[in-house]
Write a structure and sequence with these properties.
50% of the residues lie in helices and 2% in strands. It is built from 12 helices and 3 strands. Helix 3 packs antiparallel against helix 6 and helix 10 crosses helix 12. The relative contact order is 0.12. About 2% of the residues have low confidence. It binds protoporphyrin IX containing FE. Protoporphyrin IX containing FE binds next to helix 5, helix 6, helix 7 and helix 10.
Length: 367
């Protein structure tokens, strides 16, 4: 190419219209900008819809709490209620769906309604959590027995039906799993039960039923020695003034405070190399938030089984519901109340337990 031809071609290149890649980069930018804006707008529009179930359920909870008190003298719903899809179940399923937890399908419904006294201990491949409440539901088939890819909607409805929770409390408790759940494109939010063991999210040290992670890396199976130790805090049936109506050994809020106090004392001890203490567990961690979860977890079985040792032992040790021993939700004996166990009632019991632990710990002297 001559120098004149080269100069001409350079000039024509300069004056040439913008090339296609340049145009598409601009368009791409505009499209991305629009999509970003659209997603923000969509988020802002759907936020009230997502918050709505939360707001409604929290407003409703104190009402259910009061109704439970007022309806105490009336006959309780029958055990068959566990196998019926009630209006409250329908509304709760809708609230879960609105929250993006997934739709309850006909087969989910069938699974939740037909499970009962068909306990199977978990197999090696099954996913299990440090929570006996969730594991027991899987062991009885209220949620898939393998414990994997379980939608939060299924967990929520199963908690309500299995334990006779008020919809308000079932929803509130399930939202705790939101911290660790995953969302898939099919509009479902789900967990494997084992995900619940994520350290220091809800799972924590100084638990009543599991050794600390340092000593028990697999937080799935219960530590039977600790379960038995907790049950030893039960008041003997024949002791005057002992709690419990059935002449059974029973735990009460004071027993739970003492059990939690003992675990926290042992695990946080700086001078006991023989035990599960901080001396051997450099990663020991129990901030206030996790203490609250611990006391909360201990309050639920206490309320559901009225502290009865004969009902609590299978739940703690085998993660089995005490149908064989005579327990059934939805009966007059169940302390949950006519409308199921409310969040407010749970909060009162849990606060009593945590306050009890605080009052046992020696107060620090003021300087
Ligand atoms: C989606 C709902 C639930 C979530 C996310 C959840 C989460 C957890 C977690 C992470 C733990 C381990 C805490 C620790 O390290 O000690 C736990 C323990 C526990 N949970 Fe749940 N749980 C749920 C529902 C339930 C239900 C329905 C019950 C009772 C029926 C229950 C009763 C318990 C008990 C008794 C413990 C043992 C506490 C201890 O060892 O000190 N939970 N839960």
């Amino acid at each position: 190419m001559s120098s004149a031809e080269a100069a001409q071609s350079a000039q024509s290149a300069q004056s040439a219209p913008p090339t296609t890649p340049h145009v598409s980069a601009c368009e791409d930018y505009e499209v991305k900008k629009f999509l970003g804006f659209w997603n923000k707008l969509k988020g802002a529009i759907t936020l009230p819809a997502k918050l709505l179930p939360f707001i409604i359920l929290h407003t409703l909870d104190p009402v259910l709490f009061l109704l439970n008190i007022f309806t105490l003298p009336f006959p309780r719903a029958k055990p068959e209620t566990q196998h019926k899809w009630t209006t409250a179940d329908k509304l709760l399923a809708k609230a879960c769906q609105l929250s993006g937890w997934g739709k309850i399908t006909e087969s989910d419904k069938k699974m939740i309604l037909s499970a009962l006294n068909n306990y199977n201990a978990p197999g090696d491949e099954d996913s299990r959590s440090p929570c006996p409440g969730l594991n027991a539901m899987a062991n009885h088939g209220f949620i898939p027995r393998h414990g994997k890819h379980v939608s939060l909607s299924v967990i929520c409805l199963a908690i309500k039906k299995t334990y006779d929770f008020a919809p308000t409390f079932a929803y509130q408790l399930t939202s705790a799993a939101g911290f660790i759940s995953k969302s898939s494109g099919d509009g479902k939010t789900w967990i494997d039960l084992n995900d619940i063991a994520a350290p220091n999210v809800i799972e924590h040290d100084a638990s009543l039923l599991r050794h600390d992670r340092m000593f028990q890396p697999d937080q799935g199976p219960p530590a039977v020695d600790l379960c038995e130790r907790t049950l030893q805090f039960a008041h003997p049936a024949k002791q005057p003034g002992a709690p419990g109506k059935k002449g059974q050994n029973c735990l009460n809020t004071e027993s739970m405070s003492k059990a939690l106090y003992e675990r926290r004392l042992i695990c946080s001890s700086n001078d006991d190399p023989q035990r599960e203490s901080k001396v051997r567990n450099g990663q020991y961690f129990l901030p206030g938030k996790l203490k609250i979860f611990g006391a909360g977890n201990s309050a639920i079985p206490l309320i559901l089984w009225d502290g009865r040792e004969d009902y609590l032992r299978p739940f703690f040790v085998e993660e089995r519901l005490a149908y064989r021993e005579g327990w059934h939700p939805y009966t007059r004996e169940s302390p949950a109340g006519f409308f199921g166990l409310s969040f407010l009632y749970f909060m009162l019991v849990f606060a009593k337990i945590e306050h009890g632990v605080g009052s046992i710990f020696p107060k620090k002297k003021k300087e």
